[in-house]
Specification:
The chain is mainly beta and 197 residues long. The chain has a single domain, classed as Sortase (Sortase, Chain: A, Beta Barrel), CATH 2.40.260. Helix content is 9%, strand content 34%. Pfam families: Sortase. This is Class F sortase. Keywords: Hydrolase, Signal. InterPro entries: Sortase, Sortase_dom-sf, Sortase_F.
Length: 197
């Protein structure tokens, strides 16, 4: 059952949507995107047939170390040139205007953190280097290995945005959520970088 985004989380939504301004404007057309429909499946990549190339539009993300198994919905770019975010707490959002998992550059997937422990990425800050992330799309599953986690103050996000939204080079994956709630607003962005396993 989909958990709708309560009004109290507007701060997180605005954080992710508001600080991700000045996204690259020379984005490739991602083509048609299907909605998430892939059923949940076993964890480890050893039990999967992994694709060598692109997963196609991602439909599911799994992080065994955190107990995350969630749908991925495509999100776009607002008229203000900021990244959209998922409308539900238990869904993640893949930035469809950027890279597809398994292709050159970083595929970017965002999810919410909630004080009620209902956010899909509530535990993202606890992920460790070497942890595995599986992304399944219409063309198959790809495995990524976490290389680092950065916790960046909101005012400093622009300094790391080029690395997050990298559109060339090796295939990578970036996960993001809000961090450090001070009772009124989120003060940081948690950014997880992973490389193709």
């Amino acid at each position: 059952m989909k958990k709708d985004l309560p009004a109290a989380l507007a701060a997180c939504l605005l954080l992710l949507a508001g600080v991700l301004v000045n996204l690259p404007t020379d984005r490739p057309d991602p083509g048609p995107v299907r909605s998430a429909s892939t059923p949940a499946s076993p964890w480890a990549s050893a039990d999967r047939d992994l694709v060598d190339g692109s997963t196609g539009a991602p439909e599911r993300i799994e992080i065994e170390s955190l107990g995350i198994d969630a749908p991925v919905e495509p999100v776009g770019t607002t008229p203000e040139n900021a990244q959209e975010v998922p409308a539900a707490l238990d869904e993640t959002g893949w930035w469809r205007d950027g890279s597809v998992p398994g292709e050159d550059g970083n595929a970017v997937i965002v999810g919410h953190t909630a004080s009620s422990d209902d956010g899909v990425f509530d535990r993202l800050v606890d992920i460790g280097s070497g942890d595995e992330i599986l992304v399944t799309g219409e063309d198959g599953t790809a495995a990524f290995t976490v290389t680092r986690t950065d916790v960046v103050p909101v005012p400093d996000f622009a300094t790391v945005a080029p690395d997050v939204y990298r559109s060339d080079g090796a295939s990578g994956l970036v996960l993001m959520t809000c961090g450090d709630w001070n009772g009124e607003e989120f003060e940081t962005t948690v950014i997880v970088f992973a490389e193709r396993a």
